[in-house]
Amino acid sequence: MLIGATSADMGGKSGFMIAGARDASATIAAQKVPVWAYRFSYVADSVGKPGAGHATDIPFFFDNARIKYGAATTPRDEQMGKTISAYLVNFARSGNPNGGDLPVWPRYAKASDEILDFAASGKAVPGRDPWGAEIDDLQARTAAALASGRYNSLTTPIGAMLDDPAAKAVLARYLPAMVASPQIDMARGQTLVGVQTYFPALLTDATLKAIDADLAKVPMARH
Predict the structure, then answer these.
(1) 70 — alpha (psi -120 to 50), left (phi > 0) or beta?
(2) What confidence score (pLDDT) does residue 221 get?
């Protein structure tokens, strides 16, 4: 199996896409099923902002970035497509993505935690997951947040806080423009940490820590 997610996928690093892909890789590999894990961090040159969003790997896996990006497609975009699709063709032919002069994609095992990053640089970079320790820490914090029974930036959907006047007041104090935006409804099912990648200057770690400290004083509404 090939298992992975994009670098700015839904839910952030601790979410069901990125951390979920890592957990799935470990669980399935433990059953002796060959697994090659990846992260797609490349962003097309024309996008102009960091972070590979959900499903942005698809045009590259199928080497048709030009269909997606048209005249804005660059040689670097096309090279990334050729690299990724070569791995995919190898996997379809033999059940192993490796072959030719491609960088060796290490088979996944929980102990080694090695993935292939289709990096922002445009290169395929194998190595130990640089986010591994952070994801483990986030998952431990998530478990603690769920057990706390309090609103928090890690596990509480934004919509649930907006529906509680006291929690909404906390958000409005720190994030007035976000709370007032009509587009906030698009993020109701996400957590603040889950959308942090998209608004790094607004949702800094310090801001989220301060929000969590105030939210801890708000009794959670019972439905």
Answers:
(1) left
(2) 79
